[in-house]
TrEMBL record:
Annotated ELMO domain residues: 199-369
CDD domains linked: PH_ELMO1_CED-12
Function recorded in the entry: Involved in cytoskeletal rearrangements required for phagocytosis of apoptotic cells and cell motility. Acts in association with DOCK1 and CRK. Was initially proposed to be required in complex with DOCK1 to activate Rac Rho small GTPases. May enhance the guanine nucleotide exchange factor (GEF) activity of DOCK1.
GO biological process: actin filament organization; cell motility
Annotated protein name in UniProt: Engulfment and cell motility protein 3-like
InterPro entries assigned to the protein according to its UniProt record, in alphabetical order: ARM-type_fold, ELMO_ARM, ELMO_dom, ELMO_domain-containing, PH-like_dom_sf, PH_domain
Pfam families: ELMO_ARM (PF11841), ELMO_CED12 (PF04727), PH_12 (PF16457)
Superkingdom to which the source organism belongs: Eukaryota
């Protein structure tokens, strides 16, 4: 290795141009080996390459020299910081120039990117030589030649290193760069599928074959193969299963939808097969159609990313993820089509809910991108955490904000109204207890359970109860022989804490949510209840809590309180429609310096 390094070190200094060119070409190849790189750099070979770059004007020599230099520096053996200003200007000149030699510009961008990352001083030096306007002006010309990701990353790093007003001003360039780059997808988006194009038809059949393991189709008759294909295209989610190409005639998204489906199937074959097979095994009404969903999802992504729209002169809304991800549309599609399947299951959707699901998915994507994720992985984590239930919560919160029911003054008004409305609910609960309720007794025997009735006296001092017959609906208090003074009630128990739930474990699970008990006479005795319904349970436990001087805690009370508050607030805000409610009260002005403007009534009396 040392001998090879020495030979090439001498070869690149040869007076013979042919020998020098061949040595540089070989050096560009062998510099990928770290052992060779160490030997060559120990001879200050990298500094010799810098000198060649500074002095040479030959494109072939320059290509091999820059490639060899980049490979050597990529090993991290020496720092990037000791580069001369002449070298930086020369590299920047290649980036600024028209793309006459694509290989030189590509490796120059790689070198500039590493400079920007290595130190702030180098970043400032590069920024001084390569302006944003110059890079963006050349961007469209460089599409066919450059590794665009390098250019995007360089420009993005340039702008995020800026600060203050410069950063705000340069955000427009990020937006333009994103728009110009993504718009190269527009021709595919505007082009419908050609049913007679053999290449496009082959992609469609590859999608089908990748999803379903079928017997050899060559041995089948024409009719049998046609029937099999139609059946599998239907399972794949195409509306026109006999001629699936018809589903892709609509533009947009046109052929772009076929591209995204094909990318997903080839890039993530396991996820693709899992999606299709999982849905083809569901009941017909609950299966998520892959093809139909993919076409609509591609259209949604095109609209969100504004593919096909010319960049606005004042636009500044860009996505940081664009600057760190190649093939952004395709990768977003692969993540979002799996999100769509997840959301479909969360919503328990059927074919009739297709548009509703797509609206939710659009909202999930839009909300996640608005948080400016900087990488694809971060986007996936955020968008999957934003499930259907979270979307519903966000919608409810935003609706309340829109109605101004979460404005601080309104919240303060709510707190003032609560005591009055809670008292209204308390009175309703006590009135309900005065009306009484028919309960069933738990019996360990198989015979029909007995019925009994309990009601509160009108003066709220006694609980009257007693056995009743099936056909008795509302017995008078006099007919109920037993009674318990409210003052003797010691506690209210619910659920598994009730004595009759501990005694009748066989029936416990069935009625646990409906069971409650009151204890009285120093907790030696208890009256045990099984409510006919959850509503009755809430009414009675709330009413008994009121009698005991405790807070009501049932879900029914919370729901009713929220309804009453909402109605009362809306009634009180009727006169303030279209009037913005401030977050804080207006400032009270200082009192006047004198009160001479008041009328003096004393003189009139005289």
């Amino acid at each position: 290795v040392g001998r090879c390094a020495e030979d090439l070190f001498k070869g690149i200094q040869s007076a013979d141009a042919g020998v020098r060119c061949d040595s540089l070409k070989e050096l560009a190849t062998v510099s990928t080996d770290v052992t060779f790189a160490q030997e060559f750099i120990s001879r200050d070979g990298h500094l010799l390459l810098v000198k060649i770059v500074e002095d040479s004007n030959d494109n072939v020599i320059m290509t091999h020299t820059l490639t060899a230099f980049m490979e050597l520096m990529d090993h991290g053996i020496v720092s990037w910081e000791n580069l001369s200003s002449v070298f930086i200007k020369k590299i920047a000149g290649f980036v600024n120039a028209k793309p006459t030699d694509a290989s030189i510009q590509q490796v120059s961008l790689d070198i500039l990117e590493n400079m920007v990352l290595s130190s702030n001083s180098l970043f400032l030096a590069v920024k001084h030589e390569v302006t944003m306007e110059r890079l963006i002006a050349h961007l469209q010309d460089m599409f066919a030649f450059l590794n665009k990701k390098n250019l995007r990353q360089y420009i993005y790093k340039n702008i995020i290193h800026s600060s203050g007003s410069v950063q705000d001003e340069m955000a427009h360039y990020l937006y333009v760069l994103q728009s110009v780059t993504l718009n190269h997808l527009e021709p595919r988006m505007r082009m419908p599928l050609d049913c007679y194009n053999p290449e496009q038809r082959e992609i469609l059949h590859n999608l089908r074959q990748a999803a379903f393991e079928t017997e050899s189709e060559n041995s089948l008759s024409h009719e049998r193969r046609r029937s099999l294909c139609a059946k599998e295209f239907k399972k794949l989610g195409f509306s026109n299963n006999s001629n699936p190409g018809q589903d892709l005639v609509r533009t947009p998204p046109g052929l772009l939808a076929l591209d995204t489906m094909n990318y997903f199937a080839t890039r993530y074959p396991d996820a693709y097969s899992r999606f299709v097979l999982e849905n083809s095994s569901r009941e017909d009404k609950h299966e998520c159609p892959f093809a139909r969903s993919s076409i609509q999802l591609t259209l949604i992504l095109c609209e969100i990313l504004r593919i096909g729209e010319p960049p606005s002169e004042t636009g500044s809304d860009y996505h940081p993820i664009f600057f760190s991800q190649d093939r952004l549309l395709e990768e977003l599609f692969c993540g979002c089509i799996q999100l769509l399947n997840k959301t479909w299951k969360e919503m328990r959707a059927t074919q009739e809910d297709f548009d509703k699901v797509m609206q939710v998915v659009r909202e999930q994507i839009t909300r996640t991108l608005s948080s400016k994720p900087t990488s694809l992985e971060l986007f996936k984590n955020k968008v999957n955490a934003l499930n259907y239930s979270e979307i519903l919560k966000l919608r409810q919160t935003e609706r309340l904000h829109q109605e101004e029911t979460l404005a601080p003054p309104v919240l303060e008004l709510k707190e003032r109204l609560k005591p009055e409305l809670l008292e209204l609910i308390r009175q309703q609960r006590l009135n309900r207890l005065c009306q009484g309720t028919k309960f069933r007794k738990i019996s360990s025997r198989r015979r029909q359970d007995k019925l009994w009735y309990c009601r509160l006296s009108p003066n709220h001092k006694m609980l009257h109860y007693g056995d009743v017959e099936e056909d008795v609906e509302n017995p008078p208090i006099e007919a109920l022989q037993e009674k318990i003074p409210v003052a003797d009630i010691k506690s209210l128990l619910t659920g598994k804490d009730c004595p009759h739930m501990k005694e009748n474990k066989g029936k416990q699970n069935k009625v646990l949510d409906l069971a409650f008990s009151i204890t009285y006479d120093v907790e030696e005795y208890s009256l045990n209840f099984i409510a006919p319904s959850r509503t009755d349970f809430c009414l009675w436990t709330d009413g008994l809590s009121v009698l005991l001087g405790r807070e009501m805690s049932s879900e029914s009370m919370r729901s009713e309180l929220e309804i009453l508050l909402s109605m009362e607030i809306k009634l009180r805000l009727l006169d303030l429609e279209n009037v913005t409610i401030p977050d804080s009260a207006p400032v009270i002005p200082k009192p006047p310096s004198n009160y001479n403007f008041c009328y003096d009534f004393s003189q009139t009396e005289q």
